[in-house]
Amino acid sequence: MEEFNFDNLSLEDFFGDDSNYSYSTGIPSILSDSAPCRPESLEINKNVVITIYALVFLLSLLGNTLVMLVILYNRVSCSVTDVYLLNLAMADLLFALSLPIWAASKKNGWIFGTTLCKVVSLLKEVNFYSGILLLACISVDRYLAIVHATRTLIQKRHLVKFICLGIWGLSLILALPIVLFRKAIYPPYSSPVCYEDIGNNTANWRLVLRILPQTFGFILPLLVMVFCYGFTLRTLFEAHTGQKHKAMRIIFAVVLVFLLCWLPYNLVLVTDTLMRIGVIKETCERRNDIGWALDVTEILGFLHSCLNPLIYAFIGQKFRHGLLRILATHGLISKDFLAKDGRPSFVGSSSANTSTTL
């Protein structure tokens, strides 16, 4: 068995470093030609983190299951955007199923072995990448429907299914490097951790593992969304039609929440990358600050998996109506109550087939 080398480990090696970055173990990181970097009083209370994970798990499990149920129940009339949102709910639900394991690892260290380490790391990575890629596809769909009023591509359901399959495949590819190197590590005098074992050339490999996925899995999709929604907003404001503004509220809210949850995490990673390549001077204090920031922003990213159903519930009139209709069909609420709710109408694009039905 190859001997594991601890000589060049950094704080982020144990506090989290690439796409699954935050595994606080209390192990001091070591800078070359300097004393060990020891975390000061920046460690987040583990019980608070576990409580947050438990709440996110329950809300995500309930909310995303309801979203999938409503869309599938009305699948005959669902739009292209609904297909993307269905896949987004699937990604969030799959990730939520791994949250109890992450919570347990915060309490006891990583006691689940290498196989489960790879599986839950894969779920987290695929959730992130599929999320932003699906939102980029929705932005293109809205751009074509509203700015160009075109229906040729976006009306073909079978093409949308292939696009979604392609997104899942690309997400798996982007997540693959982390999964290949991720394993359970049992360092001396500390709790076991789940993180990347890259070998001696750690710094260079970690830069590659960061820059490539962040470029293709975050920066490029983000630029696509900025471009598409910029022109879409301009067209909506020029049209002066309240219905179109109303139909776009959900999509803008979903994108905004995604960015609020995941953008801070990625900005911290960019800062750490700049420090590693020497653009920012590396010090123990900065390493400690980045390790703490990764912990906090990772929790914010995890929180995202339960927020989309809340957006649909508070903003999406048709989602609420669809859910009430299912409850009325199964006798859980009165049909008179459903009638009072009324059936909403939507004008989200040039075609009813491409309207935002949630």
UniProtKB/TrEMBL annotation:
Per its record, how is this protein called by name?
A: C-X-C chemokine receptor type 2
* Domain of life, per lineage: Eukaryota
Q: What Gene Ontology biological process does one annotation of this record name?
A: immune response
Q: Subcellular localization, per the record?
A: Cell membrane
Q: Which family does it belong to?
A: Belongs to the G-protein coupled receptor 1 family.
Q: Where are the transmembrane segments?
A: 48-72, 84-103, 128-147, 159-181, 216-237, 249-270
Q: Which PANTHER family match?
A: C-X-C CHEMOKINE RECEPTOR TYPE 2, CELL ADHESION MOLECULE
Specify whether Phosphoprotein is a keyword of the entry: yes
Organism whose genome encodes this protein: Loxodonta africana
- Which controlled-vocabulary keywords does the entry list? Cell membrane, Chemotaxis, Disulfide bond, G-protein coupled receptor, Glycoprotein, Membrane, Phosphoprotein, Receptor, Transducer, Transmembrane, Transmembrane helix
**Lineage of the species this protein comes from:** Eukaryota, Metazoa, Chordata, Craniata, Vertebrata
Q: Where is the G-protein coupled receptors family 1 profile domain?
A: 63-312
Q: Which Pfam families match?
A: 7tm_1
CDD domains per the record?
A: 7tmA_CXCR1_2 (cd15178)
Q: What does this protein do?
A: Receptor for interleukin-8 which is a powerful neutrophil chemotactic factor. Binding of IL-8 to the receptor causes activation of neutrophils. This response is mediated via a G-protein that activates a phosphatidylinositol-calcium second messenger system. Binds to IL-8 with high affinity. Also binds with high affinity to CXCL3, GRO/MGSA and NAP-2.
What membrane topology does the annotation report for this chain?
Multi-pass membrane protein
